Amino acid sequence: MDKELLKKLDDFIRVRLNEKRYRHTMGVVETAAKLAERYGADTEKAYVAALFHDACKNLDIDEMNSLVEKYHIGDVYIDKPQLAHSKLAAAIIRDRFGIDDEDIINAISYHTTGRAEMSLLEKIIYVSDAVEPNRSYPGVEKFHRLAFEDLDRAGYEIANNAIRLVTEAGMYLDNDSVAARDWFQSILDNDSLENSRKFAVYVANIIDSKRGSDIVVLDISEKSSFADYFVIASGSSFRQTSALAEYVQERADMHGRFVSSIEGRDGSGWVLMDYGDVIVNIFVPEKREKYDLEKIWSDCGTVDWEA
Ligand SMILES: [Fe+2]
Ligand SMILES: [Fe+2]
């Protein structure tokens, strides 16, 4: 992007932002640059989006409302400066400055609410806005640290916090804020279940919630070439072992964890579900005793799945 255009963007905000807001903006610029570096995003786009994100924040309400109308932002944004300023900055950077990069536009447009399916740049601007060094509110240090460790977790915490504050204040809660929070949540769920230990623990809890009993998670990773964990549990009857297996499968499917084979659902009293790195064994008590997997694998450690 040419220097002249960047200078024009800076001139635009300098005359429109008060001192505090300009300092905040520079804080977002600085944080977004570091996060772009950290996560491999385009640093120039991050700079432009951060610089302009709050360009309309200090406009008075009448001017905002008339711009909302001029740019057809939507009636829902009338008299809602805390939301409208994002949409207006996105419209103006396109209209007045000819910047039509969709990623920059969206990062500006959704910096307040976030949304589902955010791009990396959108996430960086959304998170930077909340954690830049001039921000001071309970929890901000934690969010700042998280931003550099795990951007999605930071996004989730920030979205959750924002929803709580808006709800407590009785303010208008935008659908995109909720969609953002739920989306971050789903990323965290899926991430964690790719990890075999977490998945084994998750399955143990699923079985527990459906009254499976004597649940044991064995770490067989050191001793076995075919899997990392065994989940072993008992159902009180053939029917319950099948029902438990079905429920495990249903829940795992929802997290993109698909079983590669299931054996023993025909009433043999031992249902074996192969998830690759995790093998789930659900027995009726007699069969569990007979095959005694825990004895065979007795030199393997157990995992505290209830923790
Ligand atoms: Fe803002
Ligand atoms: Fe901001």
What is the mean predicted local confidence, pLDDT? 95
Structural class by secondary-structure content: alpha+beta
Choose one word for the global shape: elongated
**What share of the residues does DSSP label as strand, in percent?**
5-15%
Please provide the ordered H/E string of secondary-structure elements.
HHHHHHHHHHHEEHEEEHHE
**Widest beta sheet: strand line-up:** 3-4-5-2-1-6
Question: Architecture of the largest domain in CATH?
Answer: Orthogonal Bundle
Structure report:
The protein has 307 residues and is an alpha+beta fold. The protein contains 14 helices and 6 strands. The chain has a 6-stranded mixed β-sheet with strand order 3-4-5-2-1-6. β4 and β5 form a beta hairpin. α2 crosses α7, α3 packs across α6 and α7 crosses α9. 37% of the residues are buried.
Summary of the model, kept short:
With 307 residues, this protein is α+β, with helices and mostly antiparallel strands.
Tags for this model:
single chain, 307 residues, alpha+beta, Hypothetical protein af1432, Beta Polymerase, domain 2, 2 domains, six-stranded mixed β-sheet, 14 helices, elongated, binds fe (ii) ion
